[in-house]
Specification:
This protein is of the alpha+beta class and 248 residues long. It has two domains: 7-73, Winged helix-like DNA-binding domain superfamily/Winged helix DNA-binding domain (Arc Repressor Mutant, subunit A); 77-238, GAF domain (Beta-Lactamase, 2-Layer Sandwich). The chain contains eleven helices and nine strands. The strands form two sheets. Strands 6-5-4-9-8-7 form a six-stranded antiparallel beta sheet, with helices on both faces. A hairpin with a 2-residue loop joins strand 8 (199-206) and strand 9 (209-219). Helix 1 (7-22) crosses helix 3, helix 2 (28-35) crosses helix 3 (39-51) and helix 6 packs antiparallel against helix 11.
Length: 248
Amino acid sequence: MADDVVKSVGRVLAVLELFKLRRESLSGSQIATELGYPSSSTNAVLKSLVKLGYLSWDTQSRRYLPTISVTGLGEWIPDKLLTNEILVMLKVLHEGTGETVTLSTQIDLNMQFVRVLPGTFPISLSLTEGYLGPLFGSAVGTACLAQLSDDEISKLLTRVRLKGGSAADQLELADVMEEVEATRERGYAVGFDLILQDTGAIAMIIPSHPKFVIGVGGLSQRIQRNKETIIDLMQRTVGDRVTAPVVG
C-alpha cells in the first residue's frame, strides 16, 4: 500500500476490490489471508462495512458479500463520463478489430482503465475495468503524455523516479520524449511487450474528449500484422491527430 494512503481507507477499498475480483462470498479469514492483513483489523473493517450497509453477513455460512449499496455508489459515473459518442467509438473499434478495446484516463502517475471490451479471439488481451497501468512505459500512457507539455512530462517522470518500485523509474527522459515526439507526429502511440509479455497495443487520445485514451490491444504478432488496418480504423473512428500542446 502506498505510504501516502490512509491505512483504513486503503483497506476498505482493498476489500471491495477483492470482492470485485473474486465475485463470490468470502469469509473473514479468506479476506485477511488474501490481502495479507491482520485478522483483528480485517474483522474491524468488515464489521464496519456491515454496519454501514455495504456488506452483508450470513450467520450460517459466516461469509460476507457486498450489497447493492456498493453498486449504487458509482452507478451514475458511466452516464456522466461516457457519452454516447465515446460508447459508439468503442463499439465500432471492437467490432472492426475483434481485439480488446479499452478506454483509459490519467490518475496521477497511472492510467486507469474505465471501460474494457474483451477481444473475441480465443487468445486476447485480458484486462479488468478499474485496473491501474503505468503512465510511463505503456502505449495508452504515451498517448496521454503526448498532449502534455515537455515540462509537465519531466516533472511527472521525476515523481515516478522518487517513488520507485517500478520499471518506469529506470526510464531516461530523452527516451520518453523520443517516443512522445513520435506519437505527436503520427497521432497515435504504439507499444509491444510493455505491460504484458507477447502483447501489443495502439492508442490515441480522443480529440473531442482529451482526458480519455482509446486503445486497441492483443497478441503482439496479431497487432503487428494488422497494424495499418487498425490504425486506419482508429483514425477514421476517433478523429483528428494528436498534436504537440501549445505552451505559453
